[in-house]
Specification:
The protein has about 575 residues and is mainly β. The chain folds into three domains: about 150 residues, Sandwich (Immunoglobulin-like); about 80 residues, Immunoglobulins (Immunoglobulin-like, Sandwich), CATH 2.60.40; about 300 residues. Helices cover about 5% and strands about 40% of the residues. It is built from five helices and 34 strands. The strands form seven sheets. A ten-stranded antiparallel beta barrel has the order 21-22-23-24-26-29-30-31-32-34. Strands 5, 15, 16, 18, 19 and 20 form a six-stranded antiparallel beta sheet that branches. Strands 7-8-4-1-12 form a five-stranded mixed beta sheet, with no helix packed on it. The two termini are about 55 Å apart. The N terminus and C terminus are likely disordered.
Length: about 575
């Protein structure tokens, strides 16, 4: 014998345009637990409060809109009972009065042969008393049954769950509507939350037959937007967005492993590996900043370590294919030959009001122009590592007079040039402008994996360029650009998600000189040989460096967890777009 442990679970949604409309609820069965959850498709501040009037004695209600009870045979009436409901929002604003009708029957549930699930009640709807352009309220009643049939119904709902709606435009501060695409005639729900406000505003609409929808709403910076669609009682996943401008004021950093060519004006260049670390942090504790306003004052730092010079006489294809492995073969005592650090403050002067859509790629780009200043130093090289020994021109050589003028008092046949043996770092300071470009997802506004692009120009002094003294004026220009592979999306976390290109120069703005060079023959004699005179030569030339780099963390991961190259192992798949 079938046990009548059936609960009629119903969700009722009604619209504010039907204050005097009557909606017939599903028929209640004598002795069968009955439950109805009411929801309001009205515009107002969430949560809503439901006040019930003239509720039948066998029913109980909650302020959240849940109606439940079990009717007895004495509750059967010849005419449906009327239930009047008043809805108010979280701001105590009345959303209107609504009327529903409910009947009680002693007819037993009808079962399909071989199943314990009763036939679904017919959907009921009542036209409004007054004409309205909005659709009539409906009662959506899923099939009721025992626990096994409920599980099956849940599985069917999951399999028919609609996709999340798509937004047409980014959510911009000051916009008056949210537009997008859903399924044809789907119900669309928008929930807006505001910073510092515990209440949520719920807005609803119905998509047009071609799936387009528009929800009128005034958007403010920092508002949280959650939007989903409902089709045949099944709800999609939510799409969550933040209204821009929504500033990301936290840390900004990069860690790069690269290869560079560095040199000085009219001098030989060197190639070496380098590691570059940059970080910028907001000094937000000095003011009451939050993410809806930009933290204008930031503290930045940059450390750059260069290895000993490397041999550059290998084919480009070999170098490119085994770049990380070559870095891994570098000896520990050759990892750092020189180092430079800079630190200072930056004040963001100008910022683009809205992230621009790129002309060459599908990203949004946010621009900042800042005034920055900083100071730091360059570690002087070990004089032994800079030693170069040459033969002194013979007394009859045409170069001897020029040599004696530049290096008087040399009586040995050999001369060795080294950098000065300083007891302090080579100091520098600078002040200038920096343009920063941050790349963000086209829709979600989340920052992409590539580090921001930067271009800076500054004036200052640098002992590395001006003979070991703070004198004259030095112009410093730097450019850093993350060239993307594939695209900049967050799922491209590989080592080559971007190729970081950079270039820098430091130019002494003093008066230039054109000198006749001395062409000397190199010698392999050690600098400690008594036939060698040692002369220190401080740097006095403009310098530059250019190169490329990759993500340092990913490079280290590839060295510590190399890919499986055994025969028959599957090739690593590229991340999905």
């Amino acid at each position: 014998m079938l046990r009548r442990l059936l609960i009629v679970a119903v969700v009722v949604v009604f619209c504010a345009g039907f204050a005097r409309a009557q909606t017939l609820l599903p028929i209640a069965q004598v002795g069968v637990p009955y439950q109805v959850q009411l929801g309001a498709a009205v515009n107002g501040a969430y949560p809503f409060t439901f006040t019930f009037d003239s509720l039948p004695s066998w029913l109980k209600s909650t302020p959240a809109g849940l109606v439940s009870g079990t009717p007895r045979s004495t509750d059967i009436t010849s005419q449906p009972s009327s239930i009047k409901i008043t809805v108010t929002d979280a701001l105590n604003k009345s959303m209107g009065t609504f009327e529903f009708l409910i009947s009680v029957s002693n007819a037993p549930p009808v079962f399909i042969a071989g199943s314990s699930t009763p036939i679904q009640q017919t959907q009921a709807q009542v036209a409004p008393v007054e004409p309205s352009s909005q659709p009539a309220p409906t009662v959506s009643q899923p099939a009721a049954g025992d626990s096994s049939s409920a599980t099956k119904a849940g599985a069917d709902k999951t399999s028919t769950q609609p996709d999340a709606p798509t937004l047409h435009d980014p959510l911009e501060n000051g916009a008056t509507a949210v537009r997008g695409t859903a399924q044809s005639s789907a119900g669309v729900v928008l929930i807006r939350s505001r910073q510092g406000d515990k209440h949520h505003e719920v807005l609803r609409t119905t998509a047009s037959p071609d799936g387009e929808f528009s929800i009128p709403v005034k958007l403010n910076a920092g508002d949280g937007i959650e939007i989903r669609q409902t089709v045949n009682g099944a709800s999609s996943d939510s799409v969550r967005r933040i209204v821009t401008p929504y500033y990301r004021n936290g840390e900004e950093l990069r860690a790069i492993l690269g290869y560079q060519q560095a040199g000085a004006s009219a001098a030989a260049s060197e190639q070496n590996f380098f590691m570059d670390f940059y970080i910028s942090r907001p000094l937000a504790f000095l003011s009451g900043y939050d993410d809806t306003s930009q933290a204008r004052l930031r503290w930045w730092g940059n450390v750059r370590i260069a290895s000993y010079p490397q041999q550059g006489d290998i084919p480009v294809a070999t170098f490119a294919s085994s770049f990380v492995q070559q870095f891994g073969q570098l000896k520990v005592n050759q990892l750092a030959q020189s180092a430079e650090y800079l630190t200072g403050l930056e004040i963001r002067l100008l910022s683009s009001k809205f992230p621009f859509l790129g002309r060459s790629e599908e990203t949004r780009q946010h621009f900042n122009l800042g005034l920055f200043g900083g100071a730091g130093a360059t570690g002087p090289m070990d004089p032994n590592s800079t030693l170069h020994v040459f033969e002194v021109p013979s007394p009859g050589s045409p170069q001897r007079p020029a040599f004696d003028k530049d290096f008087p008092g040399v009586t040995t046949p050999l001369i060795g040039f080294v950098s000065p043996d300083r007891d302090s770092f080579l100091r520098q300071y600078l002040v200038g402008l920096r343009l920063t470009t941050t790349y963000m997802d086209k829709y979600a506004r989340s920052p992409l994996i590539s580090a921001p692009a930067m271009f800076s120009i500054a004036l200052g002094q640098n002992e590395l360029v001006t003979r070991g003294k703070l004198q004259g004026l030095v112009l410093r220009t730097e450019a850093f650009y993350p060239l993307p592979f594939f695209d900049r999306s967050q799922d491209k976390r590989g080592m080559l998600s971007a190729l970081y290109l950079f270039g820098a120069s430091q130019i002494h703005l003093g008066r230039s000189r054109n000198l006749t060079p001395l062409i000397l023959n190199p010698s392999t004699v050690s600098g400690s040989d008594p036939t060698v005179t040692i002369r220190s030569v401080p740097g006095n030339r403009d310098i530059y460096r250019i190169g490329f780099g990759i993500d340092l963390v990913q490079a280290i991961m590839s060295l510590s967890h190399p890919p499986d190259t055994t025969p028959g192992s599957p090739a690593p798949a590229l991340p999905a777009h």
